[in-house]
Amino acid sequence: MPNYFLDNPDVLFHFNNLDLKEVVALAEDNYAQAKEFNYAPVNYEDAMENYRKVLEVTGDLAGNYIAPRAAGVDDEGATLTDGHVSYARGTRKNVQELSQADLMGLILPRKYGGLNFPFTIYMMITETLGRADASLMNIYGLQDIGDTIRKFGTEEQRQEFLPRISTGEHTGAMALTEPDAGSDLQAVKLQAHQNEEGKWFLRGVKRFITNGNAQLLLVLARSEQGTKDGRGLSLFACYGDSTVKIRRIENKLGIHGSPTCELQFNDTPAQLIGSRKFGLIKYAMDLMHRARMGVAAQALGISQAAYQEALKYARERRQFGKAICDIPMVANMLIDMRVMLESNRSLFYSGATCVDKKEKLEDLIEKRKARDESVSEEIARLKQITKIANLLTPIIKYVLSESANKITYDALQIHGGTGYMREFHVEQLARDARITNIYEGTSQLQIVAASGGVMNDVLGDRFDEKERREYKGGLTKLADHLKEIRQLFLASLKYVTEKKDNSFQEVAAKELVEMYSYLHVGYLLMEEAEVDPRKIFIANRYIVTALANARKNTEAIKSELFADLMHAEKILQ
Amino acid sequence: MPELHFLHSHLWAKGYRQYSYRRRLSMHNSIVLVKQVPDTTNISGQVMKEDGTVNRAKLPAIFNFEDKVALEFALRIKDECGGKVTAVTMGPPRASDVLRECLYMGADEAYLITDRKFAGADTLATSYVLSEAIKKIGDYDFVFAGRQAIDGDTAQVGPQTAEKLDIPQITYAEEILQIKDNSVRVRRKIDGGYEILECKLPVLMTVLKDAAEPRPFGAKRVMAYKGAKSLLELEKMAEGNSLLYIDKLVYEYKSRSLFIPTLTADDLHIDVARCGIKGSPTKVYAIESVVLGGSEPVKIDNTRAGMLSLIDTLMEDRILG
Question: According to the CATH classification, is domain A1-141 in 3.40.50.1000?
């Protein structure tokens, strides 16, 4: 009876070391809701106990119910018949149980049937579910559109849409992508037009829409006729009624349980969310930031599952008279995977708590504004924390999704020939992982998104502070390594900036972003190593590897590796 | 087994959590008998004592799975007809754990039947106490229980309880086909097939493992009832803290709907001689570990003579007859 929360010491480590005091205090409004809802916490300890209990319920559900169905879901997949999408049987059961377990409105306020959980815990639950069945995370994670409606919609819209998300009666979809607007969402064409009474209708086509068969859709559409850029786009909510035709679902490499739909909107009645023209630049960006964290959680879950499969197989499989995990080269791969997993988790939850604080501060500012109270102090803090959240989110998406590919790749490799066979779970994990560094913004786009913060050295003060600290015994050497990585980074950054070559800078951004992530994660692992001696191993391997990579990245930049870009045409002829 | 078969449960398939229906039926109350059992699926070295009895302290205690299925049956009736679901367990104080889990799943109330005088009970003594507790709780149309518990595997407590309550019983229930105001139609498993029975209410049913998939714990209920406590647990709290008074604690927990009612021998006014080890005629003579070994496969001709020889062999081995 595996419980995917309780059987994972690293997740427990992070849960036990979470500091959500500020987040919970803000979210619970000084625990006033306990009078109204018998499941609302009465203090911080009670809140944490609630989260722990619910994580245990999720872990049980994930390990004992959802995971055993994953192969069946992958085999059967979602299907389209007569314009109607059916989930695989396992998926239906999963969604039903998640609804029964009250998990579909995890982050929504209690008055709309939700649990009012912090984003960080939501991410922990997403990771846990992603480990059991990656494709389920797509459907589960789309409850997040409810949060967009909560933030930017009207009270009537909240009352109309949110309760049915909380019960699981309605699942959601975010309909952004179009055939000619993928990474470049400014090119969205789908038309939103108004009748004389001011009612909105949507007309056009959306493609690659995850869970496009949902009952509730958030649609990015061009409301300002004649415009061509992102400022002519608005966000709309509509029901997946008979005016929304599902033209096809994609036949994909992985995440078979999650239907990817092509939708045709035939004058679908819709409601404007928030203000016109802010659809992409404010609301969709806000939604996408959180969705990127969701995909990172999914990638982390897949990585965990693949690592477990590899470890189990390596312990059982005997060759040359011993278990293959005792062969140094295999053991080394496993340690690499484990270090990658744990360092990724540290990176992830550092970002999740940061996003959490940012969101709660935003809510607080809205509340105070409504009461005509001063918000200047909060706005200053929000500005600072938003910078960090907007830097960490793309770094997290980039690092975790690329790692998921590496970890599933190696997990399959450890299985040898058997890993290539459909009978073993690991090949599914490798297929499922492959989408994580593509959708919700490709890795390349994440680099672009992170490069601004990196070039401006947003975490510079934080690193300065860490460099001034003293570390105990064995950690001194690692602290020196991190100092060296910092010097390498700053020298590379200087080189790139002074070169004043945009193409070079765009490509070198990858090297710079990676080095920046080594610094951030390296210091996180140092802190963990001070709490838990076992983590010294993780910090050591991570930082030593990071130093080698930072040297490599610096060398690539300083030796003008990318200078041949201007000859691309000749090289590629 | 059909995947979704009970009443309106097919609606779940569409992802509806709540569905509307016309309430044609009167409400039906259910009492569910549940048991905390040692987790025999995770057996390690030291769980058997030298005398052959189980060392319960070495095994994690879990909710007997078939009893969870029984609770699911009761909850589905509640979903369909309304009414109240009451879980009951007889056991040591720590059995409150399963009662909390019943609350997490959806039970409205959970009773702990506990007393030192009940210790060491066999199925006869257990069913006596349970039947008295059910009489005391009263007002029920259904009593549900798992077919059997994984620790004893006797499958006797359910039937014996029905006898003592003097109500009809349906064992090995697989599916409830129809509920009317005063009767129920049920499919039960029999050797080689099934039979469909109709029976007056109240009735006691024991259910099979595969008859329904128990619903997961609801997060809201888990958070709301995680602090539910039995009288014994509250007494323990009061013992350890001179500032707490048991009466006040009980009052407080009751007012917050967090009290697990506790019934003892005195509360039930029962014949103590029929309880616990005193009231248990079953005596364990010895326990031995039997390893079933396989032997060579035997090929039997698909002819009448072949079949007859198989039957002869089975009768000789006393497997048949």
Answer: no
